[in-house]
Amino acid sequence: MPPSYTDDQIVYAVRDGLIIPAQLDRMAQGMIDLVNKTRAAMSIDNYRFDVDAHDEVAHQAAIESIVMLKNDDAILPLNAGPVANPSATPQKIAVIGEFARTPRYQGGGSSHITPTKMTSFLDTLAERGIKADFAPGFTLDLEPADPALESEAVETAKNADVVLMFLGLPEDAESEGFDRETLDMPAKQIALLEQVAAANQNVVVVLSNGSVVSVAPWAKNAKGILESWLLGQSGGPALADVIFGQVSPSGKLAQSIPLGINDDPSMLNWPGEEGHVDYGEGVFVGYRYYDTYGKAVDYPFGYGLSYATFEIADVAAAKTDANTATVTATVTNTSDVDAAETVQVYVAPGKADVARPKHELKGFTKVFLKAGESKTVTIDLDERAFAYWSEKYNDWHVEAGEYAIEVGVSSRDIADTVAVALDGDGKTQPLTEWSTYGEWEADPFGAKIVAAVAAAGEAGELTKLPDNAMMRMFLNPMPINSLPTLLGEGGKKIAQFMVDEYAKLAK
Question: Of 18-32, 152-166, 196-210, which gets the smallest average pLDDT?
């Protein structure tokens, strides 16, 4: 038996006499490779890894993952007083929400791991000598609200200059083992936010969730919103660094945040029926759907605020080969805050033979800039950046033509658009009597034959094809063996002429 084979477009691999899907085979091989990479270290007697160094990696990863969604009235960063700025008067801070004390730092089910250490936000405040009043406000489950916890939280909020509310999804609300039926956070958390906001208008919400939650229904009750996701073991210090301004937030949304779950294109097909689910949205997933069809979203893909401001200028795209290009742009930090910005490059195809999204992210780079500093960034786009998967060719395909290159800081915040013309990959398929007239026109050989048909029509050697918009509408999608339907015997002669001429040219 061969090492791999294909059955109904599923590729299988043979390993030790077992037939398994190739994707699982690759995953297994990847795990084996990872184990092999650790052998050298694990074979050292009394080997110990550096726990603190690993924790610092987790710390930096968490910092860069935090996305600031809202910062009205520049409510963030907060002033921690003498700890951060000896000349400043500290704000009186209330911290509300059990997530601040008991962080949800990882996913559920089989994603559970044992961290080397765990530092909550409250732990970090204590370590750094930052004073804050705390009230849990709610329990981390889907049980009804506890009036006593709510009352304590509201009283705590009344006495603060700023309230940090740690809200999100408990583990029971999302997992790899079941589908979510709503994007909403637990109702008791939203109700508590409303009560707290009524007692104190200076509220910052810090979210803990594995995938997006609806923000629009409650955003009016918060001046600031930080989407912190599941930040791992060092999430507490990372949040403190951002909240108190040691670093500027620089994360960007990897998901659009829709207005509601029913705006998601998968809802037309989910959860399926009779044991079958169609992935009917095709390539129009996430921002590719929302942006192509102009659907309103709460926050677009790639979005994320900063304490700094930036400007993107001098955008240019240069063709580097038949179907590749290089994009350059100058990024300037126009503020007095050191921070990082992520420059995003989207490719927007022109007229295509298949349905394609309005644009797709094909490259990005994160650049750190001191206050007032400028840098030129370069992003290379390979052939795949312009290709789509063609069922006809059973391969990636780049069509010839002009492509728009959009450079911006989210899928809906484009600083500039430039164009690049590509040669295409030249892929063609043999033309037959079943090929449409439009396909004949688009083919290099077929176009010559279509021109020959027109010339023969003018010379009276073949029936002259009517040249008007209505006839074009009928002709282009029509297989040429259907020409007799429109033109009778003359159409039959045209079709035969085209097939005969193609046989000569394609030898």
Answer: 18-32
Residue given tokens 């004390």 in the structure block: 101
Distance from C-alpha of 53 to C-alpha of 55, rounded to nearest angstrom: 5
What pLDDT, on the 0 to 100 scale, is given for residue 63? 97
Tell me whether strands 133-135 and 67-71 are parallel, antiparallel or unpaired: unpaired
Where does the pLDDT of residue 86 fall: very low under 50, low under 70, confident under 90, or very high at 90 and above?
low
Q: What is the pLDDT of residues 445-465, one digit of tens each?
A: 899 999 999 999 999 999 988
Complete DSSP assignment for 103-125:
---S-SGGG----S----HHHHH
- Give me the phi and psi of 127, to 5 degrees please: -65, -35
Q: How many CB atoms lie within 10 A of CB 252?
A: 20
Terminal Cα-to-Cα distance of the chain (whole angstroms): 37
pLDDT exceeds 70 at position 12? no
Provide φ and ψ at 323, rounded to 5°.
-140, 35
Structure confidence by residue, pLDDT tens digits, 198-252: 999 999 999 999 999 999 999 999 999 999 999 999 999 999 999 999 999 999 9
**Helix, strand, coil in percent for the chain, rounding step 5:** 35, 25, 40
Residue 185 one-letter amino acid: M
Report CA 397 to chain centroid distance, whole Å.
Answer: 23
Please state, in angstroms and rounded to a whole number, the distance separating the CA atoms of residues 189 and 145. Answer: 8
List Cα–Cα distances, 459 to 201, 455, 472, 488, in angstroms. 83, 6, 21, 19
What pLDDT, on a 0 to 100 scale, did the predictor assign at position 19?
A: 56
Residue/partner pairs of 155-161 with CB below 8 Å, 24 or more apart: 156/94, 156/96, 157/94, 157/96, 157/196, 157/199, 157/200, 157/203, 158/199, 158/200, 159/92, 159/94, 159/133, 160/92, 160/93, 160/94, 160/133, 160/200, 160/202, 161/91, 161/92, 161/93, 161/202
Element (H, E) at 406: strand 401-410
Rounded to 10°, the helix 121-128/235-243 angle is 60
- Greatest mean pLDDT range, 299-313, 418-432, 470-484: 299-313
Peptide bond into 115 cis (omega under 30): no
The 3-class SS string of 336-370 reads CCCEEEEEEEEEECCCCCCCCCCCEEEEEEEEEEC
Q: Report, as an integer, the average pLDDT of 344-360.
A: 94
The 10 Å Cβ neighbour count of residue 496 is: 14
